[in-house]
Amino acid sequence: MSAMPQEGDLAQEAEVVWLESTEDLDYVRQALDKVNTRKGKPRYERDGRLIGYSNLLPKAPRSADSGLFARRTFYLLPHDRPNRPDDPECPYKVGSPLEAVDPRTVEPGKTGAKTARSQATAEIVPAGS
């Protein structure tokens, strides 16, 4: 199960771990997943590849309703622009998915933002647009 992260959901984050360099990635998708652990690489069950994840503080509480921990995952799907930069048929040649953010704007406790780079445009776009 995953959801779009909100700032309040991220208060227990200790760090963001990148599994690969984000230097050449215009954007990554982010999701708030319910998992059994506070830290370490979470199980990944989407198409595409896991790019990074968050670790939580040692005393981060479990969710009262599910008993699980809410942690962010960062990923790319096979059809995303960073995977197909020269493909004219790429669905995100301009723009990006709703849940996408520029990885350079990601910090523990912060949702990240869309930028001109993540949108492949010259103007800055507010997150969630």
From TrEMBL:
Pfam family, one: DUF6009
Top-level taxon in the UniProt lineage: Bacteria
Native source species: Streptomyces beijiangensis
Disordered: region residues: 80-129
InterPro entries, sorted: DUF6009
Name recorded for this polypeptide: Transcription factor
